[in-house]
Write a structure and sequence with these properties.
- This protein has seven helices and five strands, in the order αβαβααβααβαβ.
- The protein is globular, with a radius of gyration of 20 Å.
- It has two domains: 31 residues; 120 residues, 3-Layer(aba) Sandwich (Hypothetical Protein Ychn, Chain: A), CATH 3.40.1260.10.
- With 154 residues, it is an alpha/beta fold.
């Protein structure tokens, strides 16, 4: 009986692995390699619902295409910096941001907004470093689109 169970388990595991490979291959065949820029410049609301929704959209996109098939940038300017400001004290947002960054999602923060609103990226925003700062959020969006990135505003 143990032998039958072991054989059955091996067949199920093999079938699962084959199905997973097939699903990955189908996603790559359907979607190919993608370069995408997500644009966030809006207020997420007091309950952060809009920001969490945007992070879910990005994760769903990665799940469908595969992280290895994607180059994802997120450009934040204006009220969009509220995402990283709220994340300073919001563990759910922190988790979503870190999960995306762990999948090689780059977050670009507008220096014009930092200066204009007197925001310290080191003290006021979650997980932002000097290399994440771009001179202008809107100029960065245009630059990335010229480089072939698809524009998405969740």
């Amino acid at each position: 009986m143990k032998r039958f169970y072991s054989l059955w388990l091996a067949i199920v595991l093999l079938a699962t692995a084959v199905f997973a490979q097939t699903a990955d291959a189908q996603a790559e065949e359907r979607y190919g390699k993608q370069k995408v820029v997500y644009h966030i410049n809006y207020d997420g609301g007091q309950d952060d619902k809009k920001y969490r929704g945007a992070m879910r959209n990005i994760q769903n996109h990665i799940n469908a295409v595969g992280a290895e098939n994607m180059d994802v940038k997120v450009v934040l300017h204006g009220n969009g910096l509220g995402l990283l400001s709220q994340a300073k004290t919001n563990e759910r947002l922190q988790g979503q941001i870190l999960e995306l960054k762990g999948q090689n999602v780059d977050v670009h923060v507008c220096n014009n907004t930092l200066k204009g609103r007197e925001i310290s990226y080191e003290n006021d925003l979650f997980d932002v470093f000097e290399e994440d700062i771009v001179p202008s959020g809107v100029a960065e969006l245009s630059h990335l689109q010229q480089m072939g990135y698809t524009y998405i505003k969740p």
